[in-house]
Write a structure and sequence with these properties.
The structure is a homotetramer. Chain A contains 6 helices and 12 strands. The first copy, chain A, is of the alpha/beta class. The first copy, chain A, has a domain of about 170 residues: Rossmann fold (3-Layer(aba) Sandwich), CATH 3.40.50.880. In chain A, the strands form 2 sheets. Chain A has a 9-stranded mixed β-sheet. Chain A has a two-stranded antiparallel sheet with strand order 1-2. Chains in contact: A-B, A-C, A-D, B-C, B-D, C-D. Chains B and C meet through helix 5, strand 7, strand 10 and strand 12 of B and helix 5, strand 7, strand 10 and strand 12 of C. Strand 12 of chain B pairs parallel with strand 7 of chain C, so a sheet runs across the interface.
Chain lengths: ~250, ~250, ~250, ~250
């Protein structure tokens, strides 16, 4: 979405979203992920995002040519969402270079759950992006930390997930430019569950919920947060900068 | 403006802006400020903001009862802009308390130029907000530092003011949550000229240009930045938090 | 402590610490605080800080003349620690002005537990500093969020307090410049338990543990964190800036 | 330097510094860099750092085996300084991986001047690290922005370099965790000349001055800032965190 305001009118054009999914967990019909997401997680994410009049949504997956992220697709993507887990190593470095370049040019990036360990997220952060984790069907409760942040529109002060994989601190990321959510886990841990960064002309939102064995992406509050995250990360007609050798602006 | 998005439609409602001006410099018809701003600076600010379809604008000045900032006016204000200089001390502490409370509840605050030394800005920052300054008709050039920031919509990588009062570092403010502009001054100084902070549910934008003896607020780029600043600071339907004694959320 | 380094030698001079305590809870000999802290909390804080060869420690309390914070005492204080609860309103505004001025000049400020609601902390923050709380003898576990931070010297990745008053988000503070600890509470809440800010030439560390009915300040890890916080907040021979009218640095 | 404090004594052990230099500009005896730095820039940097009793200094250069940065050398390095320009592409990715890993484990990294475009700096930042530049023998004046920062110890509010290459905004870096200096350039530009970041357990300081055709590293104030930067970036005995699968800390 490129929001542009003239002095006479205010209009919102459409945000073009590409929902990227590794799409491996859901391939085994006998296992939990396929039961919850029979057409893949990307189908559910694309469905609820596509319900918004200001978004047009396509999907892309690992096993498509160029992982579905051709130059053309990326050129027509305003915000890319990313879910991966088993096969981070199979994402080609060339595609990671391409996505990084587009983010720095202004494309929004919404990284979900185990995407914390993807090549693209580690590339954008510069750190290991490692964390502590466990799977014991424990409860998570997420608290809003910055109630002035647009990602919290329509979100209550806290909300719960009956079962979620625990992701716990220390989470090895750069200090977020904006810390939006902190998660409490029943098993005794905490996590910076919603984090924002500006990088180049692009914006990045990491949101922790979304383990493949729970129906997290059907949860209306989760859907609201991801929708808000896409809107927040969408490029606007902000300043285009140039680099390189530059003439003096003043006589010396 | 409370932007609210439903799943079916996206609409922008009106942002209610109150332009506050000390309105003292412009009282002497023989002096420069009155020549540039015969109806006061607030008239010019209100005029260009009011040209936006998404804004409704009123003004308020120091010498009105309660400085024009009654409980009613503030309750109906989404964003307050503030220009003051000669008479900071005449602003009553009770009104400062009232404005601070509203900002923390979500009202946006756009502080202009010498407003850096106003009671309300010092109150929100917790620091002296002092700086170095001089008036020698020197040039200023402002550079965009964060090209992902919505305040830079439609703004070039840098722009110039033929003459501006110098405001120079060290500017005694808390590190901005978002540093949007740095100013270069011909006389040899630099300044963090555009700074954003989140405070409570409110957002604050400080923008340095606007000395009373130059026609700064007629400049189209300056108008664009202030318009963007008002839009950025406008409250949204973000999380409403509560405080105080709280029952346990888990059995212990 | 003014650490100063010459090229030939490195020496650490003494940090002069003033431990300030409201000293009201401990006045009733039949109640828990007096049993835990028979000579007042300040006595315990002063004792463990004073064990450090690089610190000289004095105490000051609310009911002393000028709350024990005369111009002289403050002029000789490098770091001030603050504990208050029942009687925030009894602290005179004049003393708050005085302390704020000293912090902005470079004095460190370590605010403990219910000091979050003191006049001086609210003054420095510009926000309500409000939070959610309860007292049900629940466990707290604090996690290190920034393992590069000097306040974490000698501190494990997490540590527990058997019983602590719950302080929960949303905590109405400016985003910390450095977020050092997040607390997990058994009753289902989280809290930004260790936060750092730079203000003027001074540094501020807020540390949440220390409810008056538990022996928190006898805990060796807590003592370590507070000791580190005092060292981090201690002034150094950093830049002294000046403000006001300034001649041009360049010919124009 | 691993600073460690016991309760009985305070001692500073030695910081082991490795000064890395590309060492190509200085190879042509007829050109300016060789005249200014006949033994290479690293020799001058090592000389003034080595004058500090709390530092032991070695050097390493591009054309040594493994660029002089063997596993052994890095294991014994507390802070690495980096100057490169012509031959960034010749630095092997394997060595960049190795340095990044050490920084995330706690080694300090001080990146100088054209090192902004080195592989290691781009790796740590996640952005292009691009900027605007020109060489016209113009003056630079650097202003202290955070007078509470230890890197400003003994540094005046501003200081000048008679001639420096211009580096100008927009500088494509993540917002610094701590912005310490802003530079003013005679030709009309500004630059965030001194920036700090925390990454993993490590700290990174970028300092812009140091063009190879001017005797910048002989300037006492520049030497002071770099010395302070090394001390700030030096690892301390801060928290060692672990990652991976983690047992529950609470029964669920």
């Amino acid at each position: 979405m490129r929001r542009s305001y003239s002095t006479e009118e205010t209009h919102l054009s459409t945000t073009r979203v590409t929902v990227w999914n590794e799409f491996r967990h859901e391939m085994n019909p006998d296992e939990e992920p396929a039961k919850i997401y029979p057409h893949g997680m990307h189908a559910v994410l694309a469905e609820f995002l596509g319900r918004n009049a200001d978004m047009s949504v396509r999907t892309a997956t690992l096993d498509e040519p160029e992982h579905g992220l051709t130059e053309d697709v990326l050129a027509q993507t305003d915000v890319l969402t990313w879910w991966g887990h088993l096969a981070h190593a199979e994402v080609s470095d060339e595609i990671v270079d391409r996505v990084q370049k587009r983010v720095l040019e202004g494309m929004g990036l919404v990284v979900l759950h185990s995407g914390h360990y993807s090549k693209i997220f580690k590339r954008m952060m510069g750190t290991t992006c490692d964390l502590r984790w466990r799977e014991i069907n424990e409860k998570e409760r997420l608290f809003v930390i910055d109630p002035a942040h647009p990602i919290t529109e329509g979100v209550p002060p806290w909300f719960e997930l009956v079962h979620e994989e625990m992701y716990g601190e220390r989470f090895d990321i750069p200090q977020p430019d904006e810390l939006v959510f902190i998660g409490w886990f029943q098993g005794g841990d905490v996590f910076r569950s919603g984090c924002c960064w500006h990088r180049g002309r692009g914006k990045i939102f990491y949101f922790q919920p979304g383990h493949e064995t729970y129906p997290i992406y059907y949860d209306p509050t989760i859907q609201r947060v991801i929708t808000n995250g896409v809107r927040w990360a969408a490029p606007r007609d902000t300043t285009v900068v140039s680099f390189g050798n530059a003439p003096a602006l003043e006589k010396i």
